[in-house]
Amino acid sequence: MPAITANVAQLPIRLRNFFARYPPQIYSSLAAPRPTPPAGQASTEQPLPSPYTPDRDAKGAQKEDRGAFSVARSMLWDSRSAPNPFLPKKIYSTGKWMGPRYGLRQQADLVKLAAKYNVEALLPPGPKSTEYKAAKLAERGLRIKGTGIGQKVKGHKWERTMEARLEDRRKAMMEMPEMIRLWKQRGHGRGWRQWPKR
């Protein structure tokens, strides 16, 4: 558990009541075990490829594989003994779902308040937590097709050919002194307005 920077008496009454009802020793995101990716599936954390790529096979967005390991989904945990108040739970006797104890707006308010007092890590993991949002953003990309992890952007033609053009330009600049030397050797290096004398 991280050291609480604020004294418990200095926390707002709303946070004190929440921590009294859901003690951080049981419900906090730090108390939850983090599942690791299965042996067959690689973790989604990998370096981002350059979005400007000449590959044309990235025209359509691939659908998300629901069975694949997701870092963001692994953060949201729930147990029968200590149900997470930020997540919906299934009633196993009837097979129906019951909504979360705290709605999304209430969760967002609690997370903002806890972040203000530097105790956000003591809250249960939920869809409004900062850590979950950052992991989700890394997986999905910047809401633009192809900017997520392992995705590619088709882009405009000038964007796809930009790297090759820059490389050609760099090579031409490296060969420029030799080209100038040859140009002057052939006699083309005289002044532009040099007329013959009368």
TrEMBL record:
Listed Pfam families: Mitoc_mL59 (PF18126)
Protein name according to UniProt: Large ribosomal subunit protein mL59 domain-containing protein
Organism listed in the record: Penicillium malachiteum
GO molecular function: structural constituent of ribosome
Annotated GO CC locations: mitochondrial large ribosomal subunit
Domain Large ribosomal subunit protein mL59: 14-185
Chain positions covered by the region annotation Disordered: 30-65
Positions with biased composition (Basic and acidic residues): 54-65
Signal peptide extent: none
